[in-house]
Amino acid sequence: MNPISVRRRTGVRRANQGQVSMWSSLVVWAALPLLAASNYKSRDEEELLNWCIKSDHHKARPGPESNLYKQCQPWKNRSCCTEELTRDIHHDNPYNFNMNHCPGKTLSDKCRKRFIQDHCFYECSPNIGPWVVAENRSWRKERYYKVPLCASDCDVWFDSCAEDYTCTNNWARNFEWKTSENGTGKTNFCPKDSSCDTFKSVFKDAKTFCETVWDGSWLYTNDSYPCMRLWFSESGKNPNDKVAQMAARMLAKAKLNGAPGWSDGRLTLVLSAGLILAMQMLMTVL
To answer: For residue 14, what pLDDT is reported?
Structure first.
């Protein structure tokens, strides 16, 4: 995937520079009320750009890895995950999560590949600081919420899984966790009285799928606006760096003395919507 490119028309560059300055100020001021009501833990730009989720598997701080496994390889230069974990993502599943939860149905290779890429992003990405909120679960104390995912990436993910089967639309909340049949620990089972159907029947469209399957982790975002790439070529730079930098910079400029801290993430949607809108407004004059 190519990084987000900033288009400039040379004939109106000077005028645009003035507009950028004006809109930048307006955007920051417009976002202040939203920031005051937010649950974000930090507005320190450096901290936001080097954030690993507090969980059983993430590193304390992003750094280089000599190697990461297969689909996780693109993050090896600056990563929140280890090589051992990336191997587990592809083979053993560190959470004992069963993607083949519908009896008699096996997730297709192309669909499984997209979910592995999503898992690599979750475990490895150092660019989620501006969207991290608190969550009180046994294996993690933080999560990211409403991260802007490029619509084209979401569309490809959904199309890859459209004919596969599932029994619930929210994989983070709705499963029942019981002891597995092989006795290796608890794993996910379909909710009582649920039935299995295709992804396209359960989710209807790509937007609903991406925004629902992991309980609001993603926000379906037009490619013309700043948005995250689910996966990118290991030979290129991480295109998500620029998106995180823009969001972190806006949060840092809008620091408020005495602003409330973060708690359970319930108000995060307010800030996420405001932050995306502000970023979109800024991009229109670049």
So the answer is: 36
